[in-house]
Amino acid sequence: MPEGYGLPDTTDGVLAWSAVQERLVAAQHYWLASVRPDGRPHTVPRWGVWLDGRFWYDGAATTVHARNLASNPACSLHLESGSDVVVVEGASHPARADAADLGRRLAEAFSKYHAAGYSPGADAWSGDDGGGLRVLVPQRALAWSAFPTDCTRFTF
To answer: Which among 48, 97, 110, 122 counts the fewest CB atoms within 10 Å?
Structure first.
């Protein structure tokens, strides 16, 4: 961040990654930003789950964000709050999930959307096309809840 933002000079009071992950797991709504082939940004709200240190979500390969990510997998993910902030930067790729292992765990994690009518089964992502499953693998993250005193950067 630029000088003058009042960032701390020490690591006293910075956030623990475990606390940031709790926010990622608990979130119901995420914003995913990708880049169109002509360089224009595209941002879309997504449902998904944070599991095994990654963001898992699904959707049709024909959506704008999926087509963008097929050309350029670089993307960012942001939680809804502008004051209790988590921003994750990384790359998103198509994925598959075996129903007996990852698929089961993903289906359990997606249970947070049952009340909204979305309840995929453990085999939803095991087909040849992965059921539209994608995974965002983080490269870095930025988080804070009391800017600037606890503004914390993470690299992976």
So the answer is: 122
CA distances from 48 to 7, 24, 74, 104, 149 (A): 31, 10, 18, 15, 29
What gap in Å lies between CA 58 and CA 99, rounded to an integer?
A: 15
Omega before residue 94 within 30° of 0, cis: no
- pTM for this entry: 0.93
Other Cβ atoms within 10 Å of 133 Cβ, number: 23
Whether 68 and 41 have beta carbons less than 8 Å apart is answered as: no
Domain spanning 17-155, CATH architecture: Roll (2.30)
Which two structure tokens, joined as six digits, stand for 102?
């990852």
Structure token pair of residue 82:
């502008």
Neighbours of 121 (CB within 10 A): 14
